[in-house]
Amino acid sequence: MPEYLDAVKMSSASAPYHHGDLRRALLEEASVVLEEAGPDAISMRELARRLSVSHAAPGHHFAGRADLLQELAAEGYRQLADALEGAMTGERESWLRETGRAYVRFALANPQRYRLMFTTGITRGCGEGLSFESSRAYIALLTSVYGDLSHLDPDDYQLGAGELRSWSLVHGAVMLWIDGQVQQSTTEDRFLELVDEMLADL
Fold first, then answer.
1. What value, to the nearest 5°, has the Cα angle with vertex 78 and ends 100 and 93?
2. I need a surface site. Which of 34, 72, 155, 189 has the fewest CB within 10 A?
3. Rounded distance, CA 26 to CA 179, Å?
4. Using CA atoms, how far apart are residues 76 and 70, in angstroms rounded to an integer?
């Protein structure tokens, strides 16, 4: 696995839970299951078994499976937003390319979490935490496209061609990779080089 993936990969190694913060332990174990087998493989009962706690214990920290999945998605959006914001440190002209690179690298490092975030409709009717973090990530995208956002009224905002073009480019490339459509014709390193070449034209 390329080194940059180690730097942004969110999943932690699975380990038995003994004491301390059970909420955090549940999220870390769920992250492992998520990247191993996808969101459908996550169950509260199985997480309790893997952590050697009672079946009722997870219920003290999450209202149910949907609540846990929303927190996993919120963590994903938080890290994605951090990556996008961190990419906008150089010249203004480079922001769109650098945020595009950061976006793709995050997704390739966390494919199942990305799928949870963007292909399951999890942000519809979600709680405040997930709504806040997903909005942060989107605002970072808008900033990379437009720079100064003072002209955008949140109450009147409508999707524009600039962010649609940029988001479609990186999301489309990511999904081609995650869905296994291009692996037979390129390596992961070459795929990233091709993404960089596409972003250079923005």
1. 30
2. 155
3. 27
4. 10
Q: Give the phi and the psi of residue 118 in degrees, each rounded to 5.
A: -120, -10
The CATH code of the domain at 3-200 is 1.10.357.10
Domain boundaries, the chain: 3-200
**pLDDT tens, position by position, 75-93:** 999 999 999 999 999 899 9
Which residue shows structure tokens 């605002």?
139
**What does pLDDT average to over the chain?**
87
Query: What angle is formed at CA 179 by the lines to CA 68 and CA 186, rounded to 5 degrees?
Result: 135
* 2-50: pLDDT as tens digits: 544 444 445 444 445 455 689 899 999 999 999 999 999 998 888 888 8
**Six token digits for residue 113:** 């979490």
CB count within 10 Å of CB 144 equals: 26
Instruction: Provide the token pair at 31.
Output: 């992250």
